[in-house]
Amino acid sequence: MKNTQEILEVLHPSQRTRLGSLFGSRQALPWEEGDDELSGLGLVHIRHPERGEETTELNNRGWSVAMLINDGRGEPAPR
Asked: What would you report as the CA-atom Rg of the chain, rounded to the nearest whole angstrom?
């Protein structure tokens, strides 16, 4: 996938919701089920600290996609 719009189009509603949560928090959040898939799409970093719980945070591409969702341009294209 080459650009943020292409990535946005393949996201499931739950993935969009999670990106929105990470975007709104402006910080790393505790790891949740499904974050590995977002990491596979190159949208988040998952931190594995030596002590404590795993956290997930947006990377640059994740911020770009989350901004599209937040701006309301992240609606699925009509088919």
From this structure: 12
Q: Quote the CA–CA distance of 19 and 44 in Å, as a whole number.
A: 9
HSE value, Cβ hemisphere, 13 Å, CA-based, for 15: 20
DSSP conformation letters of 3-64? SHHHHHHH--HHHHHHHHHHHHHTS-EE--TTHHHHHHTT-EEEE--SSS--EEEE-HHHHH
Which residue has tokens 């949208």? 43
pLDDT digit string (tens) for 8-58?
Answer: 999 999 999 999 999 999 999 999 999 999 999 999 999 988 878 899 999
Q: Up-side HSE of residue 25: CA atoms within 13 Å toward CB?
A: 14
